[in-house]
Q: What sequence folds into this?
């Protein structure tokens, strides 16, 4: 969901940092409000602004957070090097945290969240502000964590990241609008999206917006996605109307809807 949708609040409720006004939160069968310590024992949490200690080295930060989570010194010594290699920080054990790049700090934060081997990992916008290569590396780590048997809940404003998940929940203004597998969500709009590539773009958009069967026009780079009531009418009318407006059409075709198409459609329906 977008900024302010309630993603961070939801994760903070799950980890027990906030109390729910109503209802209940359970993790691993434990009530977070009543059995907080038991629920938290199986949780790992990487906040948006994870507080590393800049004057400590990479391995010292890992040891500190391990001790906070009750990991024995012997277990820490045994697994610290392995954990740092897992997140791509092998060889950086003795570097101070305040000398790490933004992406490396996020990887160290992930290692600290995993240090007690949680069954459920909560990641709050973990790739925000990192470069594309680090972002890709981080998602490869998430996939490896899943392969180890942990469940991962990720909050993100990026639809391409949401599409990587097994299940997606769209949030807006504190509400969960819909939840399901990406393929299930996009199937609900199957056949109801047209792709239009034409120029001049402003004229093309104006003509498309005024078609009676076009409900919305979304800009995707150099092209538009038209959300339509049905496809036959627009496919028949728009080439003629665009030509009359002196618009050159490069492409007009039905396409498989994206998660962003689904979310915008839900958003507009909610607002109306």
A:
């Amino acid at each position: 969901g977008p900024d302010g949708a309630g993603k961070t609040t939801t994760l903070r409720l799950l980890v027990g940092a906030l109390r729910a006004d109503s209802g209940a939160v359970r993790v691993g069968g434990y009530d977070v409000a009543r059995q907080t310590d038991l629920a938290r024992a199986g949780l790992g949490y990487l906040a948006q602004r994870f507080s590393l200690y800049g004057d400590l080295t990479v391995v010292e930060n890992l040891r500190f957070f391990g001790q906070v989570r009750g990991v024995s010194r012997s277990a820490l010594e045994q697994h610290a090097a392995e954990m740092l290699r897992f997140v791509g920080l092998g060889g950086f054990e003795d570097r101070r945290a305040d000398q790490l790049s933004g992406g490396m700090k996020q990887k160290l934060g992930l290692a600290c969240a995993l240090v007690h081997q949680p069954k459920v990992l909560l990641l709050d916008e973990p790739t925000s502000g990192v470069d594309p290569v680090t972002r890709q590396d981080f998602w490869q780590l998430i996939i490896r964590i899943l392969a180890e048997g942990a469940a991962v809940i990720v909050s993100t404003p990026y639809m391409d990241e949401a599409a990587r998940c097994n299940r997606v929940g769209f949030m807006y203004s504190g509400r969960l609008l819909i939840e399901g597998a990406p393929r299930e969500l996009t199937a609900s709009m199957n056949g109801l999206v047209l792709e239009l590539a034409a120029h001049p773009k402003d004229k093309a958009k104006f003509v498309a917006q005024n078609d009676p069967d076009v409900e919305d026009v979304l800009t995707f780079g150099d092209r538009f996605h038209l959300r339509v009531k049905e496809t036959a009418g627009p496919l028949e009318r728009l080439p003629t109307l665009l030509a009359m407006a002196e618009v050159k059409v490069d492409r007009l075709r039905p396409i498989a809807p994206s998660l962003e198409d689904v979310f915008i459609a839900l958003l507009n329906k909610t607002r109306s």
The domain at 191-255 is CATH 3.30.70.100 (Alpha-Beta Plaits). The CA atoms of residues 77 and 234 lie 66 Å apart. The mean pLDDT is 91.
